[in-house]
Amino acid sequence: MKIRQLWQWRGLTHEGEIRQGVRWDISRAAVLLALQQQHLTPIGLKRCAVRSSLWGSGHGCDVIRQLATLLHAGLTLPDGLHLLAQQQPAKQWQALLESLGQELEKGVAFSLALKQWPEAFPPLWLSMIRTGELTGQLEQCCFHLAEQQENQQRLAAKVRKALRYPIIILSLALAVIMAMVCWVLPEFAAIYQTFNTPLPALTRGVMAFAGFIQQWGWCLVGVTLLLIIVLNRLRHHTGWLMLRQKWLLKCPIAGSLIRGQKLSHIFSVLALTQRAGIAFLQGLQNAGETLECPYWQHVLRQAHQDITQGIPIWQALKSSGEFSPLCLQLIRTGEVSGALDTMLENLARHHSEKTQMVADNLATLLEPLLLIVTGAIIGTLVVAMYLPIFHLGDAMSGMG
């Protein structure tokens, strides 16, 4: 498959009017042919750089919310896309929206048009847009999609903010420790060797650790780099991803964040599909398609098979062990009362708020622990270095 490139063009109409724009195409010749088909004489054409960072969910979330607003105002989908393209400061998004509008004018479905741009639109978007097309509620699906993406972005921002301070402090502490081990401790060791007296056990242990780091430090760095390379190679391996997810879910803080985020995502998609009138099994399949983690895909796929065999929804979810008793109770109540969509909405809101609360408290939980660990490490090094000096008088009297 040929890779599309971003081109900025300028051309003249038959009336001598200058027009310009940007477009995605596979080659310079293809762009010139497209301009000729539009009865434009090319006078300038250059290739533009593409920034992969602009494909992030932040830009896409703004686009989908603005598109939902335009649809609510009564504009057609192609007109809304063309209008958004004119307002985009980023050339690659401007060309992308123009391309989508042209595809829709040719009769291509919106979800199929988005599917051609996986770098900009993740599977969740395709599933939501497809749901909106099937139910005729594209506007509502776009609004809910934008809201769900904004919630995920806020959660990710809170986690990054909570982890930024500990990472900086630990990095500085590690730098201080390495400086003390590699430069300060050897100087103290040379001084200690002039005394004919045994060193305290703590000092001997720290000096042995310093000697080990000096002798095998490069090997440790090499092993760390090798481990990073291996983990990078395994990031697309299904078995490893499932095992890693199980480990992370067992961690005290990370497990709560990950489980809450995934459950909030799953229940949001299920609530949206139920509200749109889609069968629960189809909604469960759509929710699985929007998840990138193989472990959670397996959980929903197994639940789908159990429900197909006639097992109640709450019991099928219970067998996975990843859904809390509250989830099972509300889903069971929703099945009996016929208000499953309402219960799913409540569960999505509950897990979203709970996860946001855990993220808010993350920094409060980490800072005291960080101070204790850092203080214990640096304090141990300082005491180990100065403990022999406290016995300096005894050592000097022994020399005399």
Automatic annotation (TrEMBL):
A Pfam short name: T2SSF
Entry keywords, A to Z: Cell inner membrane, Cell membrane, Membrane, Transmembrane, Transmembrane helix, Transport
Record InterPro entries: GspF/PilC, T2SS_GspF/T4SS_PilC_CS, T2SS_GspF_dom, T2SS_GspF_sf
Protein name: Type IV pilin biogenesis protein
This protein's GO CC annotations: plasma membrane
Bilayer disposition of the protein: Multi-pass membrane protein
PANTHER family named in the record: GENERAL SECRETION PATHWAY PROTEIN, PROTEIN TRANSPORT PROTEIN HOFC HOMOLOG
